[in-house]
Automatic annotation (TrEMBL):
It comes from the Bacteria. GO terms for molecular function: RNA-directed DNA polymerase activity. This is Reverse transcriptase. Keywords: Nucleotidyltransferase, RNA-directed DNA polymerase, Transferase.
Length: 359
């Protein structure tokens, strides 16, 4: 049939993409990620999520047919089980999770200590590791309070699209309140229990997203302190560690028309990338160069994906007079840079812009 022919054609093209990707990274992955030389799918590829679902389709079917829990749901690599009458004994204190998984899911999940993983899917399901810090076990008894379950239900509802346009505490609070977690050892009420601070990428991302949404839909004045806090947060190593947020920060500065800050933030990214150095068992200067090139390309994509939303007649034509003087810093930044101009035009022509940012 026509649909089958199209499916086979697309499957062949996806296979070619992955083969080419693997061929390109082959000289480097054997040094940087030796455990992933023989298998794995690239993070970030659109097809990777499709392949991940396909690889676990047998796992889904077998869970439902052989165990049939009260509820089973999976979104790519996030899995939720609900068992109506789990057998947990008081004598198991401290070993409830291990014992329950061994007894209820023993045919699907193996208990081992290879690398950082305590559990892995069985060989039949590709021996995929389960991250121990993301394994959460909740026990609810009908004779006890279900407050925790109600809080979880409310949190899910609050994150739904129906609540997205309501004001929240992100708008009135400083970035620092959300960007860091306090690490404690013992009582939270004692100063000596504070061990340090850890950056919270998820909350920071939500904070910036809230501000982007609010500024796009409402007539809000931009907060200069937010830009200062962004500058401080993305200094040094953090600028590289949280590279996934570059595009979002640049989107915020463009939505608020802080174009001079957009330019300085992009320059700080370039400066941080230049300091990258590979520290491995071997002196692989070629790897350092490869990382820098890739990170610079990613920075350009993060920038140009946002610039494609602006008035291209102004930012791409340095001879044209304009009343939009605030765009001049952007025009100067890309003036004479053919690669950036090409990226911007390709994003606009292909309509692969962030449509949620278009008013």
């Amino acid at each position: 049939s026509e649909s089958m022919e199209l499916s086979l054609y697309l499957n062949e093209k996806i296979s070619q993409m992955h083969d080419m990707y693997k061929q390109i990274i082959a000289p480097y992955i054997c040094v940087t990620h030796e455990e992933s030389v023989s298998k794995g799918i690239p993070i970030g590829f659109t097809s990777s999520a499709i392949l991940a679902n396909w690889y676990l389709s047998d796992f889904d079917a077998d869970i439902k047919s052989k165990i049939n829990p009260a509820y089973y749901g999976r979104y790519v690599d996030d899995i939720l089980f609900v068992f109506s009458s789990p057998s947990i004994q008081p004598s198991e204190k401290g070993k409830e999770i291990i014992n329950f998984i061994d007894s209820a899911l023993g045919d699907f999940i193996n208990h081992d200590n290879k690398g950082d993983a305590i559990f892995r899917l069985s060989d039949e399901y590709h021996s995929l590791p389960i991250q121990k810090d993301k394994l959460i076990f909740h026990y609810f008894d009908r004779n006890h309070s279900l407050a925790g379950l109600r809080v979880f239900k409310q949190e899910v509802e609050n994150r739904s699209s129906a609540f997205r346009f309501l004001p929240d505490e992100h708008i009135e609070s400083d970035l620092d309140k959300f960007a860091y977690d306090v690490l404690l050892n013992g009582s939270a009420n004692k100063f000596r229990s504070i061990m340090g601070l850890a950056e919270n990428e998820t909350e920071l991302s939500k904070y910036i997203s809230s501000h982007i949404l609010a500024h796009r839909l409402c007539n809000l004045t931009s907060n200069e302190s937010t830009l200062k806090q962004i500058t401080l947060f993305f200094r040094g190593e953090n600028c590289i560690r949280f590279s996934r947020l570059w595009e979002k920060v640049l989107a915020y500065t463009l939505i608020t028309k802080k174009y001079t800050f957009s330019r300085s933030f992009y320059k700080s990214i370039q400066d941080s990338i230049e300091k990258i150095k590979w520290h491995g068992d071997n002196d692989e200067s070629d790897i350092s160069s490869k990382i820098k090139t890739a990170m610079n390309e990613y920075a350009d994509i993060s920038l140009c994906l946002n610039l494609a939303l602006l008035d291209l007649d102004v930012i791409l034509n340095d001879t044209q007079e304009t009343e939009q003087k605030e765009l001049i810093p952007i025009r100067k930044m890309i003036n004479g840079d053919a690669d950036k101009v090409k990226l911007i035009e390709r994003f606009r022509d292909s309509n692969l812009i962030r449509h949620n940012l278009v008013s």
